[in-house]
Write a structure and sequence with these properties.
Blueprint (H helix, E strand, L loop, with lengths): L1 E7 L2 H14 L5 E5 L6 H12 L12 E5 L4 E6 L13 H5 L4 E6 L12 E8 L5 E8 L1 H17 L3 E7 L3
Parallel strand pairs: 2-5, 2-6, 4-5
Antiparallel strand pairs: 1-7, 1-8, 3-4, 6-7
Length: 171
């Protein structure tokens, strides 16, 4: 497993980090987003959508799953907040996780009994104070580890308002 800790100084910096994640994201990788309400999970996903050319990315709190066809892949954004534990099991999210042309981003994955275990990027966002966030990312599987390495390099070399606070893994 490979892990990275980043600190974002503002909502704009978090969205920019999402753009970098969008650039690094590969089909078949699932991104599990954890954090309290208002932590910045959807802001990060909007940045991913910006980078991939998805228009109008919004929280699927009521629709549960939004799909965005982009030139490079199918971006699937699920928000499971309104479901009870295990309530996501009937949504068929595992089918998206296995598609060779899709990337799945899931907010509140603790409501999903059987999330993927391989090619998973786990992102935990914590509010430190107004605007400042700590993002703790860990990767399982070669695809997700490649995404995390590319994100770490991109954040190190050019993401205003984001600083790397720690890295664990093989470079």
């Amino acid at each position: 497993m490979t892990a990275l800790t980043l600190r974002s100084s503002s909502e704009g910096a978090t969205r920019n980090l999402g753009r970098l994640l969008g650039r690094a994201l590969r089909p078949g990788v699932a991104v599990l987003l954890r954090g309290d309400l208002g932590a910045g999970k959807t802001v990060l996903v909007r940045g991913v959508g910006d980078e991939l050319g998805a228009k109008g990315v919004r929280s699927p709190s009521f629709t549960l799953v939004n799909e965005y066809r982009t030139p490079g892949l199918l971006l699937v954004h699920a928000d499971l907040y309104r479901l009870d534990a295990g309530g996501a099991d009937a949504l068929g999210l595992e089918e998206y996780a296995g598609l060779p042309d899709a990337a799945l981003l899931v907010e509140w994955p603790d409501r999903w009994s059987f999330p993927p275990r391989e090619d998973v990027l786990d992102v935990r966002i914590e509010a430190l104070d107004e605007g400042t966030r700590r993002l703790s990312l860990s990767a399982a599987g070669a695809g997700a580890e490649g995404v995390l390495r590319a994100l770490a390099e991109a954040a190190r070399t050019g993401c205003p308002g984001v600083e790397a606070a720690g890295w664990e893994g093989n470079r």
